[in-house]
Amino acid sequence: GHFHSMVPLALAVRDRGHEVAFATGKGFGPVVKRTGLIHFACGLDFDGSQDIFVELPEWKEIQASHPDSVAIQQVYGFVQGLAPRMAVDLIPLVDRWKPDVIIRDPIEYGGYIAAEAAGIPHATITWAIYIPSQHICPEAFRALQQQFGLPKDPELKTIDRYLVLNFLPHSWAFPESPANAVTYRFCAPPFDQSGDEQLPDWISSLPDQPTLHVTLGTTFNRSSRTFRAILEALSTEKMNVIMTVGRTVDPAQFQPLPDHIKIAQYIPQSLLLPRCDALLFHGGYNSLLAALWHGLPMVMTPLGAGDQLPNALRCQEQGAGLLVEGDPPDVEAVRKTVRTIFEDPAYRRRAKQLQQEIKALPSLSEAVNRLELLGKSH
What we know:
By secondary structure, the protein is α/β, with parallel strands linked by helices. It is built from 14 helices and twelve strands. The model has no long low-confidence stretch (mean pLDDT about 90).
């Protein structure tokens, strides 16, 4: 999911004639290369079968230090655990490859460290909410800077000082979490086809009735209790339900199923959502952007990542969706909320309005112009 959110811009930069490379764990190399982009193995390598933080020796200590908030634990995990491992590999890579700009994931800070160490500009692709990790754990950030010999930055102003790219409209912005001062907004079509997946054959024979897509993304899809609660809630509803559970989950564990519910490991939303009427998901950024891109109302069941609950609350405030809390969520609450989304046209109307606002944003060509200017001016 983190990779997919960056691919549209990467391809736009490449199509302008520039060299573009991704630095990720070694095992993710084949996925990057299938998009025609360069891959460099950097940072912690993991296969996606479990939470990446479990791979960190210091993870239990981080959890113990911040027992009341999983979201805060995750921020510290990115800053104290993953960032140093990425920076150690990136710094010599930058010295060899000599990029003009480094573009980073919003919670990947090794790229920031490597760029600052090399004296080159850096940009950030942010998600639906700007995550000011430097203000959440400032001492950990200062320790990270000191570890790699960066100049003192007492107010942490060097993070996101050049350019932040956002792919949602101004009306989406969180009032309590204002965008960074160097934030610019662009229209980026969602990307989700890093493999050769196609629509399954049974799609064409679905009954003529409303269709709901259910997904918990590519990280929180291990929550079988949530999947089962959703399946129970929708087991007698008069609609088509298409649930995707992820490449690491066996769909057979959810059998037997009623005829109106279909389960697959992965179907690209760019192919599936044009055939759907609503989306039930965990509040993750990629599915949120995909739903809005297609103008679909949403039901959200946040599962733990720091941005999921804020995304769900903001979507509810916007009138484009509804929130169902709980892990697992209450079965009857899921059933009633899905019915509401289908029966009240106001949610679809607001989702369509946001769709129009997204597609009216400046194109990614304008984003490439800004990156080119950034690279030439430093």
